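$ ./design --mode recover --in tokens.txt
reading tokens...
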């Protein structure tokens, strides 16, 4: 039985890395597939549903990225979907979150110039110490935990919100929708890493935005669909309570040229670059899951159809 490989980019590197870990497997680079009956697994970032349906013996889709919503649309074969939980990507996203939280916490937007020469280096603009700046993580899975560790190691208190809560040390846990308002209101910065699921789509409404602490920073590196209306986000920065926002993901993506997110003094937009798939580490993880499947073991993490993640 064969495995179809369909990367978004870097095809030759993907094939070389997977072959290094799976020397006995038949790896077929899409679309060079002759015997579709022999295809048992697909490793890809995206693929047309009609093409997936053309593999009658398909059992598993191994995602080449952190997101999985592309595999859960109507018409996708009802097979096992394995997420990519790559520590290398988590590290990148933690660094991105650290950069922007610290940027606004320490007011690095301040326009220092000749008028500041008389008090240069005197700390004329006091900023809160890390222990006084509470960071909230909206979505506390693999990526959220990595971000939480990055902040706690630097002395920031951390709130974590998720469906079921956490018992992690040095983290204040909030579980369920009934705690979301309290979570938002007690954070000086909120970092969204929630995936795109029916439960998270439109979660941050205008009402939720009004529940943020005064002057808080909102950083979205999860999915753009968590914001019910991006105009409401801009309004919350213009009129409060938000002090700033950083948007790496949007809805639609990319945003339209007329989006109010662009050109705003207190909103930063980046083009979905907070974290990227690192081929060597991602290929090793995908290969390890293929080896588990061949050994009769369960790969992980497998998407739960009930939650969409």
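writing sequence...
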């Amino acid at each position: 039985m064969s495995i179809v490989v369909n990367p978004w980019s870097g095809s030759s590197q993907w094939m070389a890395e997977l072959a290094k870990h799976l020397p006995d497997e038949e790896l077929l680079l899409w679309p060079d597939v002759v015997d579709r009956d022999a295809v048992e697994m697909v490793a890809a970032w995206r693929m047309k549903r009609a093409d997936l349906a053309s593999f009658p013996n398909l059992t598993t889709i191994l995602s080449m990225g952190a997101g999985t919503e592309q595999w859960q649309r109507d018409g996708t074969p009802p097979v096992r979907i394995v997420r990519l939980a790559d520590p290398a990507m988590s590290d990148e996203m933690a660094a991105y979150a650290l950069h922007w939280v610290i940027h606004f916490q320490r007011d690095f937007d301040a326009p220092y110039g000749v008028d500041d020469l008389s008090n240069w280096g005197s700390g004329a603009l006091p900023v809160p110490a890390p222990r006084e700046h509470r960071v909230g993580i909206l979505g506390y899975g693999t990526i959220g935990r990595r971000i939480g560790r990055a902040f706690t190691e630097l002395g920031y208190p951390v709130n974590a919100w998720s469906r079921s809560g956490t018992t992690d040390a040095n983290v204040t846990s909030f579980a369920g929708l009934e705690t979301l308002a309290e979570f938002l209101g007690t954070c000086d910065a909120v970092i969204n890493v929630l995936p795109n699921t029916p439960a998270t789509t439109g979660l941050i409404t205008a009402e939720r935005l009004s529940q943020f602490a005064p002057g808080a920073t909102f950083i979205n590196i999860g999915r753009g669909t968590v914001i019910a209306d991006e105009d409401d986000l801009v309004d919350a920065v213009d009129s409060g309570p938000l002090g700033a926002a950083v948007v790496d993901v949007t809805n639609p993506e990319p945003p339209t040229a007329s989006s109010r997110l662009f050109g705003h003094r207190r909103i930063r937009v980046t083009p979905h670059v907070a974290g990227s798939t690192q081929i060597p580490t991602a290929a090793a993880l995908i290969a390890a899951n293929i080896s588990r499947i061949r050994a009769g073991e369960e790969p992980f993490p497998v998407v739960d159809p009930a939650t969409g993640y």
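exit 0
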